[in-house]
Design a protein that fits this description.
The structure holds 2 protein chains of 2 kinds.
Chain A lengths: L7 H12 L15 E5 L7 E7 L2 E12 L10 E7 L15 H16 L9 E3 L3 E13 L4 H14 L2 E2 L9 E2 L7 E8 L2 E4 L3 H6 L2 E7 L5 E7 L6 H23 L1
Parallel strand pairs in A: 4-6
Antiparallel strand pairs in A: 1-2, 2-3, 3-6, 5-6, 7-8, 9-10, 9-11, 11-12
Chain B lengths: L1 H9 L21 E5 L7 E7 L2 E12 L12 E8 L14 H15 L10 E11 L4 H15 L9 E8 L2 E4 L3 H6 L2 E8 L4 E5 L2 E2 L3 H30 L3 H4 L9
Parallel strand pairs in B: 4-5
Antiparallel strand pairs in B: 1-2, 2-3, 3-5, 6-7, 6-8, 8-9, 8-10
Classes of the chains: A alpha+beta, B alpha+beta.
């Protein structure tokens, strides 16, 4: 995902900048980029949201239909998350089957939603063992300027929160998809020995390590993912978690709005 | 099949006053809104809202053509990729290319090869990505119309823009720009792309049943509409690049005209 060339000059510049507590766009290390969310952006989807996190632009659509449950979970609905890193979004994205980066991203977002029981899957059963609601979350990256993890997860939560289970499929009325929890992910990048939050593209490109933490509305940790080849110390992880908890609260209000 | 014929008889696509289901006259376009330069990473981009269609186009290049054996030593390739988002249609579309989108990508690429000065960029590729975010019949035309603006936004030298529009036959009458019901239950659909300055046709497809005379009338409708859409494309580019006195700032003191 970050195989773009970055000049040594630029690399050194960013390293020096973050080491002195500053960032290229004027943010402080513990500051997220401006977040805007347009819910119900797509009329053909049962729920949708377009998210701008700074210049990163992600569109999430939720399609809901009826189908059969998995044989091993007859009293549970079905939820699937897919990501398309379409080549429109970056000169380094290519068309073709999803690459490991897209699959990791889809699975991290999926875990954040699933492990929090954001959508109570037992409420998605129509006839146990026979017919359940099937929820497809499709994440379409449109413009990549860093930190797709958080943009995608905010878009997913926002799209789920405005999604309707179409009544025409069961002969009833449209019902809102039950969203019970609000996990918010916050991603930190470690550049040499400095940690910045919500890394933009150039920071992500030179980062040594990345950590995504999803925190629920009670402040509990619900999902984590460490990425890239660098490492974090225990204290650094504690710091990222506590900062993610603090920063995530404002994001949660934006998503709920 | 019997079911469809049954529905066809039930739906009256054109009423006694020559009005269509959505209230349009036979020679009337759906509302169209074009915006240029909507993405940050892409070299050029455009968004087109065309009735219920929402289409994004992005251009990268000229850049090194991959795989290398495709490189043409005397000219650039124009490679278009038409892709539908899974949530763009009522029944979720499986991500990735299907036979339909591969065909549309091919004829779209060929349409643009006719206008781009490809000989100026040997061995390179000009990549055009068309993402259908919301579909309501006529997505290829909306996509081509958006892609032309995106190419211009990317500064790609072209003989002219390309405009696409469809005409067809509904309830025995020739009509411009078919919507979803008309496309499903009509008698013919004929999308075309033209070079508005010269009237050259660079894409033409047809399915259904038309007489010679009907085809002539369909062609004339599309050609006329193309001029209208051409003005909207140019207007979108003007809005993107117009420089106002405010942008230029006040004249330096002491300088008089």
């Amino acid at each position: 995902m970050t195989s773009e060339v970055i000049s040594e000059l630029m690399r050194e510049h960013i390293v020096k900048l973050v080491a002195s507590g500053k960032r290229g766009d004027g943010r402080v290390p513990e500051e997220l980029r401006p977040l805007t969310i347009q819910k119900n952006y797509i009329g053909t989807a049962e729920g949708s949201a377009r998210v701008h996190l700074g210049n990163t632009d992600v569109l999430v659509g939720v399609k809901i239909s009826t189908g059969e449950p998995y044989p091993d979970t007859p009293t549970s609905g079905v939820l699937t998350t897919s990501v398309e890193l379409v080549p429109m979004a970056s000169p380094t994205f290519e068309s073709g089957p999803p690459r490991p980066e897209a699959i990791e991203l889809a699975r991290v977002v999926d875990r954040g939603i699933r492990e929090t029981k954001t959508v109570d899957m037992s409420k998605l059963v129509i006839t146990p063992g026979e017919k359940v609601w099937v929820v497809f979350i499709d994440i379409h990256a449109l413009d990549y300027d860093g930190n797709l993890f958080d943009a995608a997860s905010y878009g997913t939560l926002a799209a789920l929160s405005c999604a309707k289970m179409p009544g025409k499929m069961t002969g009833g009325v449209d019902k809102p998809l039950p969203v019970d929890h609000w996990p918010v992910s916050v991603t930190a990048a470690k550049i040499r020995n400095t940690i910045v939050f919500d890394p933009q593209l150039d920071e992500e490109q030179i980062a040594d390590a990345r950590l995504t933490v999803a925190i629920d509305e009670n402040g509990d940790i619900r999902a984590m993912q460490k990425g890239l080849s660098g490492s974090f110390s225990y204290d650094e992880i504690r710091y990222v978690i506590s900062t993610a908890r603090r920063l995530g609260n404002a994001v949660r209000e934006t998503i709920k709005a | 099949m019997e079911d469809i014929e049954h529905i066809e008889k039930e739906i009256q696509l054109v009423d006694a006053n020559g009005r269509r289901l959505d209230g349009r006259a036979l020679d009337e376009l759906r509302p169209i809104k074009i915006e240029a330069g909507v993405l940050r990473r892409a070299d050029g981009s455009a968004h087109v809202q065309w009735g219920g269609n929402r289409v994004l186009a992005a251009v990268y290049g000229p850049r090194e053509a991959h795989p290398r054996h495709l490189q043409n030593p005397v000219r650039a390739l124009v490679q278009c990729r038409y892709n539908m988002a899974p949530f763009s249609v009522s029944d979720r579309k499986r991500p990735g290319p299907d036979r339909r989108s591969v065909e549309i990508s091919k004829v779209t690429s060929e349409a643009f090869q006719a206008v781009v000065f490809t000989e100026q960029f040997p061995r390179t590729s000009i990549d055009v990505f068309i993402e259908v975010l919301q579909a309501e019949a006529g997505t290829r035309c909306a996509g081509i119309t958006a892609a032309a603006v995106a190419l211009a936004d990317a500064g790609i030298p072209m003989r002219d823009l390309v405009v696409a529009c469809a005409s067809g036959k509904i309830a025995g009458q020739i009509a411009l720009d078919l919507n979803k019901e008309e496309d499903n239950f009509g008698d013919a659909d004929c999308p075309m792309a033209v070079v508005p300055r010269t009237g050259e046709v660079v894409l033409l497809q047809m399915d259904g049943h038309l007489t010679d005379d009907e085809f002539d009338r369909a062609m004339k409708l599309s050609m006329g509409a193309a001029q209208t859409i051409y003005e909207m494309q140019k207007d979108a580019l003007r809005r993107r690049y117009a420089v106002t006195a405010m942008d230029v700032g006040p004249e330096p003191a002491g300088v008089s005209a």
